[in-house]
Structures are given as C-alpha cells and as structure tokens.
Amino acid sequence: MSLAILVAQIFCLLAALVHFGSIAIVTLRGRAGRRDDGRPHGRPPVSILRPVCGIEHAIERTLGSGFELDYPDYELIFCVANGADPVIPRIRRLMAANPAVPARILVGDDRISINPKLNNLVKGWAAAKHEWIVMADSNVLMPPDYLDRMLDRWDATTGLVCSPPLGSEPDGYGAEFECAYLNTYQARWQLAADAIGQGFAQGKSMFWRRENLDRHGGIAALAADPAEDAAATKAIRANGQRIRLVRQPFAQPLGPRALRAVWSRQLRWARLRRVTFPAFFCMEFLTGGLFPIALAAWLAFQDGIPGWLAPTLAVAWYGAEALLAKNLGWHYSRRSPLAWIVRDLSLPALWIAAVCGSGFEWRGNQMNVKKDSLLATETD
Fold it and tell me: 78, 146, 270, 326: which has the fewest C-beta neighbours closer than 10 Å?
C-alpha cells in the first residue's frame, strides 16, 4: 500500500467521522428539552436593541415579532444611523399598533469602528434601561419565547448567549444556496462547537449581561475587531466565561436572493474570519464533502477501497444533512441536496478568494480588514 493511499484513507475516515458525528451531536442537542431546574435568574427585565438600515425582506414581520414576545418586562430600542431612513415610518406604525410594549427610535451614528452595525448600536447600549441586553439584527424573526430560550442557556459559567442565523422561506436558487451555507453547514458547526464547550459568538442575536461587557470598557470593546461577534468572543473568554448557543437557532426569512449578493456576503464573513480567527479559518479549506468524496472516488479507482464505498459515502454524506434538517425542522426542499453539493464545490474557491483579498462592502461602506479603517475606495 502506498503512502498516498494510506493518507487518503485516513483523511476520508476522519472526515466522515467528524461530519456524521457533528450531525449526530447537533440533532441530539436540538431535540433536548429545556432545563427542569427553573430559571436561575428568573425573568429579569430586558432591553432589546435592534439596529435597522433600509427596507429588507419581510422587515415589518421581523421587526413586528419583537412586539409579540411572551415576556413580562422588556423594552425595544430601534437604532437608526440616518434620520431619513425609509424604515422609520414602518417602525412608527408598529409602535402605534403596539402601545403596550415600551419602544423608541434612536437616530445617530457614533463612529467607533469600521463596523457600521456596531456604530449604530452605541447609542442604544448607552440608553438601555436594563441590566440584561439583547442585540438582535433586524432580519431575525423572534418567536414568542425568544427571550426565555436564551435565558434557558444561561448558567453560572455563561457570559454571553447567541444564536446563529437559520435561513428560512428561501425564494429561488440564490436563497437556496444561502440556506445551504447558513443551516446544515455554518449553524451545524457552530452548534457542534457549543456542544463540546467551544461556543463562539454570532452577531445575529447576542444576549448580554451588561457587566460582562462593561468590565472591558463597554460596547467600545467590540470595536477591537472588525466583526463585533469576534471581539465579543475574545472579551467573554478573557473573563473566564463561556459563550453558549440556543438549542434551536432563530429563523431569518430570506425571500429572493441574488447569487452575487450571497457570494459577497459569504466572502465578507470569510475575510473577517481570516483575520479574527486565523487558525480556524485555515481548516475551512478542507471542510465540506468535496475532498473526502473525491478522494474516495480516487481510492476506489486505485483499488484502495471497495468500489461501492465512494457512491455510498456521497449518498450518506448528504443524506445525513437531510436528516439533520428534517429532524430539527429546518428548511428542506427538493432543491436542497443540489444546493449542498454546489456549496461544497464552492468552498475551496471561497477560501482562496478570502485569502487573496482584504476588501469588502458592508452596508454601502467600502472596508478593509487589514487597514482597519473606512475607505473611500477599495481595489483588490
């Protein structure tokens, strides 16, 4: 047996174990019930900060869901950078239709970082009345038990509770492609990391106790990295605390998505991961089914494994993703398997593109992860 065949066999075996193992962990974790030991912190008053910018898909439904929470005491603070933003009249209509829920709009842009969302949130953090604070993106669809599900994950070792985005209601191939990245790939790896005690922050929904961030200088501490969730991860770990993820992520209705926009968003996130967590980013090149399935086919051609193993691995690989999605009630359609295959084929290209450049566009701002500043123009 040649060394190349042995290395390929070991790689395929390890890749399969990690892939199927992570899916099993996340499935069991997601189906587990809530704790039966009560809420150690009760149901404390909560301030919910929602940065908004422009009219997004289903914006009135996602923002409106914040007014329908089954929770006794909370306030909503909508943070808007530009007073002429067309989303403001829609927020005002929601506030008028739900007068029982304390809500307000704050306008202004505090430039403390290259991150436009963080700059938009600064005023909300300062104005929040309560010790417990949620930062939730405007496209998060909040279920009635949104706050309880995050409090359920808080214990004595916790410094932050988060939720990765979970794509739902995709309309078209671009949105299916985005679901393929968000759900059974990115959300699965994040939830698996949390299950083994290595959870990391995701900026889609972040549930804070104010003191855990204030000891690092308050919200300005999140400007230490280009992405606020990377800075949050480092700050909480510096406290000796854990970041925990909700058992079931909260949905983000996607609607129609252009493939180019999906690719640009994934490239932005990849370039941010490259500079914030370089060791983990280096391993991303080998994730997905492309390399293990291709190597299994090569091994079968070289008589390194029985011929039937390669197609069996391919079917089992994506069949396991289908079972994960169906068992946890995540989006699944007849287009999903094709979207997963296209995603895995694109992963090496995404990784190479992330390595070969540092610029990206975020909310109309041209930014650079190396120069750490807002740029008038960017050329890669």
Answer: 326
